[in-house]
Amino acid sequence: MLGRAGRPDYHDRGRVVLLADPNRNFRGGGREDEVAFKLLGGEIEHVDVIYDRGAGLEETLANVAASGREEDIVSIDSMLLGFADVQKSLKYLSSNGFIRRKGDRFKLTSFGRIVSSHFLSVSQAFLIRESVLSGEDVLDVVTRILTFDALYFKYARRLSQILKVEVPERVFAGAALDLIFSPDNLSRLDSDLERMVLDFSIEFMACECRDAPFCSCSERRFSEYLIELRCNGLDPTGIIDELSERFGMYAYQGDVITYLENALRIVGSIHLIATIFGREDVAAEAGKIKRCVERGKL
Question: Would you say the pTM of this structure is higher than 0.85?
Fold first, then answer.
């Protein structure tokens, strides 16, 4: 497959490209092109899609956004692959401020419209609303919902040779955290690697959690740092160069762009939710962060 077959919540349809090499065979027998055509021409297996409560609520909220008539909402739900208890979902969404009933129709509240248009889950919506009302720092809220973990060691092979053990390329992989950032192994690295790993450890790994370093604190701190680099004027290429030079690590440009786009979506929803609940201070902070991520400057 080449590329992405559509992004969840963004694309209704994805395109998949199969690249079959007639000169290669599968171990079980058959050329790649033969197997590909067999799969394409075969029968599709039956798949049962089961929504958990959160997914069912999201679908029902989206259906209310599409049409407020209860009859239409039930009809749309019946055409979905999964099943949601529509009546229970409508009651729950209504009692928690996402929708309201007016005659024979349901309408999104201002809160529900923000949640639906920003592709938030119900649990994320609750988290944002509670955080906004308590005046929590905006970036803290963002990184509680969304963290960047697609970070890789630039010198993974060199690290493996020095430590004489296979080091995962992903920085936030559990085995990597255990191997690289332990004091014993840190002292075995050459001076350049030791400096870069130590800088990263001091910047992001200092944590008093009982499960450290296997808690999410390092990912959250790093994600906040990524947003700050963007606000300091760096584009994705500049961010990657900074990570390489300072920490000996790298990320793919597409992953950085995707994270910043999603972070921007979360920040935008915080700004709007803070506005409708009268928290102008939080709205102002979110608006400032939104502008700096969009423009690359404070």
Answer: no
